[in-house]
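#random but structural
TW: two for the price of one
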Amino acid sequence: MAKQIVITCIFLVLIAACAHKPYSSTNKQYKKQAKAFAKLLREYPLKDSVGLQYPDGWVGTTNFSMRRPNFVVIHHTAQNSCDETLKTFTLTRTQVSAHYVICRDGTVHHMLNDLLRAHHAGVSKWGNATDLNSMSIGIEIDNNGSEPFTDAQMNSLLLLLDRLKRAYNIPQANFIGHADVAPGRKVDPSRYFSWKTLAENGFGYWYDTTNVNVALNFNPVQALRIIGYNISKPEIAIESYKIHFVPQDTTKTINDADKKILWDLAKKYQ
């Protein structure tokens, strides 16, 4: 009887331990993958990756450092809970991830080293930059896309952005949304997100149309290009611009008010 009690206690302890660390197995996989990358970096001589022939006498430079992110791309998760998103980002089959996830209560999960490449932006373009995954940090905010963001989330986001901006010297213009870099394909972080609040804190720009006089030859589509939008399909670029800067307007046309906004923004982003 006593033996059965002991076995039961051990079983319950193991269950409690697993419940306390539900991601222990995927954390091991993270470490395994990180070690594989570290091994690749230690290769001597360097393994060629583009098929070029090098001289036999390999010389390694002494002047190098890790790649540093130059953009921050903000998303909403399009899911209904932080736990749901954490699970999605730890399933190999999904092939999606982010560096940070911010829960509704403001809790921040740092899921990937900032210097590693997350799979968050997909096919993307901003200005002359393509493959934003390779040069950005992805931040996912727990939000289904049809609800306001919480004050706790916004406060945690501002603190995180401040740290990232200082750590990597990220330019103010380079804090953008998924909809900005993937127009027509993505709409996050949705029309509920306050880009004005971010701009007031130095993350991205906002507009002031006071006393703005637009030139007669002003081309608003070219202004979108100057800001960073891919204008290969102008109506889609306009839609993404409005999600970011005029969220109350769901049309895909440029009106006189938009021209004033774009005139002012183009001066800030150029």
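TW: number two ↓
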Amino acid sequence: MTTARPGLKIEGEQREQLRRRLRELGFDEVRFARVGEEAGGGLREWLAEGMHADMAWMERTADKRAKADLVLPGVRSVIIFGVNYWSGSEAENNFAPAKPQWARYALHKDYHDTIRPGLVAAGRVLEEIAGAAVEDYRYYVDTGPVLERGWAARSGLGFRGKNAMLISKTHGNWLFLASILTRVEIAPDAPLRKSLRPADEGEPAGLLCGKCTRCLDACPTDAFSAPGVVDARRCISYQTIENKGIIPRELRAGIGARIYGCDVCLEVCPWNRFAQKGRQLLLAARYDLADLPLAEILALTPERFAEIFRRTPIMRLKFSGLLRNACVVAGNGGDISMIPALLRLVVHDSAVVRAHAVWAMQRLAGSGAAALLADARARETDDTVLAEHAAG
């Protein structure tokens, strides 16, 4: 097993010099945690309950998430980075009446791509100050087998709220997290409470929430099985992004106008009153997406989809996924002017799109839906779509 070379240690003023240099790269927060005991007890319980839905990659990487040494042998420290994506009043356009609602983070170019260059530069700074080699660290932007929220809590960057998100006392709920695992031993920052266990997602949620349950009470689909525990199977963010198939009928009404993700449990948190607009030096805003009318989205072609959403998180949803979500939003919106667009989609190439378009038609056209859908139903061969016709 590879271990850290002697002398790879940072503390005192050298540590603060490292922090300053890393912040100058555009990160709003830079904190340090020491790697110690195995973590991830809460993760294992969550997986055992099946709350990860079909996100099989969470199971495959569970051991690595629990023990950082399996990711980088000889790892001693984790550098946690926070990038504030709160955009203040500019994001209010996202909640204009009659417009689809997007998770705030989606109103940027893909943060994985824009933050990564900052981490590459951070690695060079670590090499310069600590004498580390390239093989002495690995960096991740919310994609690797790393318990970012657990390490962030251990480093004092914030605490795990009852909404299961990291909550910062200065940034509220609006931080992207990134990390560097390194063999360099860096003097750790203190957690907000010294009793906080190391990087353990099983730590009871709500360290500084008090009796507040606003996030739990506000969830439109009752996705919290307990404070700090999200059942992905009921979560709007999972259903509108990670789920590539049929959204359960019983959850569709709760989705409302949310076309991509959901921020409800973040928005209602009282800690957001301290949030200030971030520097966004490692982000690229796409606030224009919030102005897209639902009718335009329903009429998208594959080419137009690629043109509008290039290099944004929405690309991971793919064209058919966005149309599926748009159908749900149309069905919830009550605007009968969407019927012609939905009639075109009930014969779409994708069975998933057809199924949700049928559901939306039934919601909007009521008793007249059967007649409008008669031709499409007669031509339909997919059992899932036929079940939607029958359910109406």
